[in-house]
Amino acid sequence: MPFRFLMDGQTVVIDDYLEVRPQARARLDGAIRRGQIQVGPWYTLPDEFLVSGETLLRDLQRGISAAEAHGGSMRVGYLPDSFGHAAQMPQLYQQLGFRYAAVWRGVPLEIDRVAFTWEAPDGSRVLTAYMGNSYAQGVDLPTDPTALMTRLASALDAIQPFRPTANVLLMNGNDHVLPQAALSAAIKGASGRLNGTIVRLARLDDYLATLPADGWPQWRGELRSSARANVLMGTLSVRAPDKQRHFTASRTLERLAEPLAALTGIEANDLLAQAWTLILQNAAHDTACGSGIDAVAEASRQRSVSALQIAETVVEHGLTRMVGQNQVWNPSLFPRQGLVEVDGSLVLTPVIAGGSVGALTTQTSGNAVTAAANRLENAHISCEFLPDGTLTI
């Protein structure tokens, strides 16, 4: 029976491993190509409510790309331990060509089967495996055939309330658990003693492909129920300054640095990719939630600082290029106008569409305002702020 191992749905661990053992690349890639090790589709398994929608998309894109470079990516929306699920996830999965997802936390009591059809607000749907009692029902299976038979019978009994099909999914793993030694041999030794039940090591998508396409309960929108598994709402307020720092870094990267680089044509692709790597590493659900020890939080904090520094550097270079072209850019999604400072004077911009660039006229009228560190002045009045808090007009 060939060995199978699911690398937790993410690829960042591959990067970490090869950084220590680069000589293992060929052996690892061979195992991935043969289907013995399954990686992707995520770069890190994110918290869906503490990162931006753009981060979720980039996370999947980076994960799929990295997995394909190593031999192939799993195409299942695998997020078993994220603390609830955003309503738009089926839409995101479908846009990337996924037919299936797999979840545990957040599923409400209305879902009483081992699978359900999950629908996004736009109508996108994916067939979703529900892991029921846990994502570790098959962890640490006994190697003794008799004990294994007893354990599997107990696991099958536990899943019966969810009315499984002829094929039942048991996940042989858990947090911080290594691949189980001699598992293939143990299953082979017990196969003839399970009263007609066939046990085999399989890939997650192999199981999903056996599920009927129709006839499942349906759920529309987010999965945020704690009815069966805690979605740990309290993590939203843990290490709040770190969350704010991550938010600032990711928004500066998304809303300012990347658009400015595209608009001005500055050479910033490598810098932006590095910033995204840091942001995506901080998107991992336990990291984003702040549930690690202080050393983990400090490493995460430094990644946010570094990502923000990179993004701000790109913004500075982009703005310098744009100023030389007498252009002004509206980074918001909505039309607006406003005041910009040019050579110490505040100039009113024209109304500019969201995300667009407009021409800036720097000629000032007699009503132009001059701004300095402690002084405001126009054609009619000058106001100076003194150190003692008084004003001279």
Strand order of the largest sheet: 9-10-12-13-14-15
Percent helix: 25-40%
Q: Architecture of the largest domain, according to CATH?
A: Alpha-Beta Barrel
Helix/strand/pairing category:
alpha/beta
Radius of gyration: 27 Å
Number of continuous helical runs: 11
By CATH reckoning, the class of the largest domain would read Alpha Beta
Shape: elongated
Residue-averaged pLDDT: 91
What would you say this structure looks like, in words?
- By secondary structure, the chain is α/β, with parallel strands linked by helices.
- The protein has 3 domains: 5-234, 7-stranded beta/alpha barrel, CATH 3.20.110.10; 235-324, Substrate Binding Domain Of Dnak, Chain:A, Domain 2 (Up-down Bundle), CATH 1.20.1270.50; 329-392, no CATH class.
- The protein has 11 helices and 15 strands.
- The strands form 4 sheets. Strands 9-10-12-13-14-15 form a 6-stranded antiparallel sheet, with no helix packed on it.
- A hairpin with a 4-residue loop joins strand 13 (375-377) and strand 14 (382-385).
- Helix 5 (145-159) crosses helix 6, helix 8 (240-264) packs antiparallel against helix 9 (269-283) and helix 8 (240-264) runs parallel beside helix 11 (294-323).
- The termini are far apart.
